[in-house]
């Protein structure tokens, strides 16, 4: 698949600089506090090309450059962003696994749950309607362009749709997915940089 991405702007370059600065300050503070969790080193060009080949698409420039210039996961809000190739996983799955399989697996689970409930003809009608509503939410999104980007804990994950140039973000909460208050990945990162980002 080929997607049309916006090139890095001067504002994007400034955003990456601000992210790098905050990550560096946080790393220094973590060292002073004797905290052992540190961001992964930046991804190599070979790592990036390998992942792009596996998912069948180039990464959007902003996402690509954050991995290349800042680090391969483990920084940002909450538990940090998912690593491109590092050990920083979200829900025990790699970056590539999430792009290729997670949305499809969730849809398949919901479809199977709905079918079983309807065949049984009994059970909790409220849960059946909830599953149907969740499936409708997933069907409204593309299945091949979602990145499980940041793990907040308690099954709450910030998800990025990298198939759209503006990089809209969503909140995956268990089996449901919904829009976040901030509409784009750029707004999300600026919120983390300036301290205004709120957990979804």
Structurally, how many domains make up the residues? 1
Average pLDDT number: 86
Silhouette: elongated
Q: Order of helices and strands, N to C?
A: HHHHHEEEEH
* CATH architecture classification: 3-Layer(aba) Sandwich
CATH fold group: SMI1/KNR4-like
Q: Rounded to an integer, what's the Rg over CA atoms?
A: 18 Å
CATH class call = Alpha Beta
Q: Which strand-content bin applies to the residues?
A: 5-15%
| Structure summary, number of beta strands | 4
Low-pLDDT segments, ≥5 res = none
Largest sheet report: 4 strands, antiparallel
What is the SS-derived class? alpha+beta
Q: What is the helix content?
A: 40-55%
CATH superfamily: SMI1/KNR4-like
Distance between the termini: 30 Å
The neighbouring-strand order within the major sheet is 1-2-3-4
> Helical segment tally?
6
Question: Please, could you describe this protein's structure?
Answer:
The chain has one domain (10-194): SMI1/KNR4-like, CATH 3.40.1580.10. It has helices at 10-32, 45-55, 61-69, 95-120, 125-139, 185-194, and strands spanning 146-153, 156-161, 168-173, 176-184. The longest helix is centred in the middle third of the chain and has 26 residues, at 95-120. Helix 1 (10-32) packs parallel to helix 3, helix 1 (10-32) crosses helix 6 and helix 4 runs antiparallel to helix 5. The model has no long low-confidence stretch (mean pLDDT 86). The protein is of the alpha+beta class and 200 residues long.
């Amino acid at each position: 698949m080929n997607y049309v991405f916006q090139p890095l702007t001067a504002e994007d370059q400034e955003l990456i600089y601000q992210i790098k600065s905050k990550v560096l300050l946080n790393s220094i503070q973590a060292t002073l506090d004797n905290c052992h969790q540190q961001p992964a080193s930046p991804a190599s060009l070979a790592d990036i090309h390998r992942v792009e080949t596996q998912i069948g698409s180039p990464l959007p420039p902003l996402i690509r450059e954050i991995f290349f210039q800042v680090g391969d996961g483990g920084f940002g809000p909450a538990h940090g962003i998912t690593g491109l190739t590092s050990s920083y996983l979200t829900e025990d799955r790699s970056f590539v696994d999430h792009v290729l399989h997670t949305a499809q697996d969730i849809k398949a689970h919901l479809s199977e749950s709905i079918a079983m409930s309807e065949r049984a003809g009994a059970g909790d009608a409220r849960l059946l309607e909830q599953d149907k509503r969740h499936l409708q939410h997933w069907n409204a999104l593309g299945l091949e362009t979602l990145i499980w980007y940041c793990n907040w804990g308690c099954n709450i994950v910030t998800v990025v749709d990298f198939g759209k140039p503006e990089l809209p973000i969503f909140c995956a909460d268990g089996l449901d997915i919904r829009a976040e208050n901030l509409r784009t990945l750029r707004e999300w990162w600026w919120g983390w940089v300036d301290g205004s980002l709120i957990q979804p």
